[in-house]
Amino acid sequence: MHEPAFWYRPSSWMSRLLMPLAAAYGAIAGRRLQRKGFDAGIPVLCVGNYNLGGAGKTPTVLALVRLLRELGETPVVLSRGYGGRLRGPVMVDPTRHASLDVGDEPLMLATTVPVVVARDRIDGLALARSQRASVIVMDDGFQNPAVAKDASLIVIDASRGLGNACVFPAGPLRAPLPPQVDRTDALIVVGKGSAAETVAAAVAARGKPVLPAQLKANEASLASLRGKRVFAFAGIGDPVRFFRMLHACGMEVARERAFADHHPFSKREIEGLIAEAGRDALTLVTTEKDLARMRGREGLPYGLREIVPFAVTLEIDDATELSKLVSNWLFKARERTFRARD
């Protein structure tokens, strides 16, 4: 879906009109947050966000996976598989599955880390544990109470923040903000900007850490685009951030096109993009997530091989602090499990 523009306006008649629906939705979502989840028996670390739309959650999952491996852990990612047709539980296999099967984010993540897709997250726990997981990383699911979390790492974009800070459908929030902040164990603020300062102060006031972070472009991606005029397109939560990053990296962006989040590109659309870029001697560039969504079970169609995926990595400003936090979360989770069995 395309995010409504009024979500990011301080005052809007449309937002006010939808307030009764938002109040009802928020009350239900708030009650769900109170429910006690199923104990997985091993540590569960959740990466989520307060609002709908892009914030940098997938790069954060990958950064957490790298850190856990450095700590000697064996992480397995558990995902709902948004956009995929398979209910699961199923291990994602990039050589066998397509985005239509398991969703674009799990397919992209599965090239780096074992990923279990399950609509019912409790059903996915046993399969994740069968992969000898020492810790489960939940990709999203912060507002879902089914599985108990040992820690929740929340991601927010510094320039977008929470928009009008209203609950869906009046705004982008998935649930009322106070109970979400209460359940936050650490906040990662991605990028530069002041839009997240208020919520960051609320998290810090509860004694929880706020960690600034930046998205860094992959050198191989930069090298493949240097000296070229590019046609950038994306169907993610925040395409503008992607375009802005290309400009910041010194790319000559001749054309931009934004699609809805998780947009299912048709064969005709892909051929149209390729033909349009070819007519003006432009190089097509998109996100890794978008390219994963374009893949079929047999890999990339011939024309897509000319599209450059722009890879990014999340870098925490104080990586040592995050490492200490994660180590402490794991210790406490295992101590709690040991006492429960004693």
Give the secondary structure arrangement, pairings included.
Layout: H1 13-17, H2 19-34, E1 44-48, H3 57-70, E2 75-79, E3 90-91, H4 99-102, H5 104-109, E4 115-117, H6 121-130, E5 135-139, E6 151-157, H7 177-182, E7 186-190, H8 197-205, E8 210-217, H9 219-225, E9 229-234, H10 239-248, E10 252-258, H11 267-279, E11 283-287, H12 288-294, E12 308-310, E13 312-316, H13 319-341
Parallel strand pairs: 1-5, 1-6, 2-4, 2-5, 6-7, 7-8, 9-10, 9-11, 11-12
Antiparallel strand pairs: 3-4, 8-13
Summarize the structure in words:
The chain has 342 residues and is an alpha/beta fold. The protein has 2 domains: 16-73 and 134-215 and 315-341, Rossmann fold (3-Layer(aba) Sandwich), CATH 3.40.50; 219-310, Rossmann fold. The chain has 13 helices and 13 strands. The chain has helices at 13-17, 19-34, 57-70, 99-102, 104-109, 121-130, 177-182, 197-205, 219-225, 239-248, 267-279, 288-294, 319-341, and strands spanning 44-48, 75-79, 90-91, 115-117, 135-139, 151-157, 186-190, 210-217, 229-234, 252-258, 283-287, 308-310, 312-316. A 9-stranded mixed β-sheet has the order 3-4-2-5-1-6-7-8-13, sandwiched between helices. Strand 11, helix 12 (288-294) and strand 12 (308-310) form a beta-alpha-beta unit. The longest helix is centred in the last third of the chain and has 23 residues, at 319-341. The N and C termini lie far apart (49 Å).
